[in-house]
Amino acid sequence: MDDFDVGGRLKEMRLTAGLSQRDLAKASGVPHGQISMIETNKSSPSVASLRKILGGMSVTMSEFFEPDRTSTNAVFFKPQDLRDLTTRLYSMREDTVGRISLVQVGDARAHNLQILHERYEPGADTGEAMIEHPSSEGGIVIAGEIEVTVGQQVAVLKAGDAYLFNSAEPHRFRNTSDREAIVVSACTPPYL
């Protein structure tokens, strides 16, 4: 895969939106220094951090990583048709342990529904900063096990187990096992 300049792309989108780094930091609720570090490629954001920053511009991860991808009326999808939301995020980080792979079915915004095939390597974690967004989400663990935290509730879910919650509740996903975890999830309205 070609190297993807996460920092350069973020800066380009921020400037196109007419925002200063401070404006974007305020809109997304992240420290100004974090925006600066990412734009200069001195820091690589987690999936959760990047999503929070993009939310300050009302941009999805699909739009961020695949700006030229056009919407289609496709009903059926082959693996090569799915939208990779994370591989390019990790392409600049050789030392990354516990990667998360998120692959989306079709154009989530067009259908107001995001369906993801998620893979969590051992040690993968959406981050200590809990995720919150105005949606509802649910999923089924297909393989391995994943620790899911929603508010004050924590559970380790294994293959066949499922979850469903209001995404406005702070939440986090972690693979604390030594095997890959696979989850199929849905979120409406789309978050990533």
From TrEMBL:
Pfam families: Cupin_2, HTH_3. It comes from the Bacteria. The keyword Chaperone does not apply. SUPFAM superfamilies: lambda repressor-like DNA-binding domains (SSF47413), RmlC-like cupins (SSF51182). InterPro entries: Cro/C1-type_HTH, Cupin_2, Lambda_DNA-bd_dom_sf, RmlC-like_jellyroll, RmlC_Cupin_sf, TransReg_Diox_bact_type. GO terms for cellular component: cytosol. Keywords: DNA-binding. PROSITE patterns: HTH_CROC1. GO terms for molecular function: DNA binding; DNA-binding transcription factor activity. Residues 10-64 form the HTH cro/C1-type domain. This is Transcriptional regulator with XRE-family HTH domain.
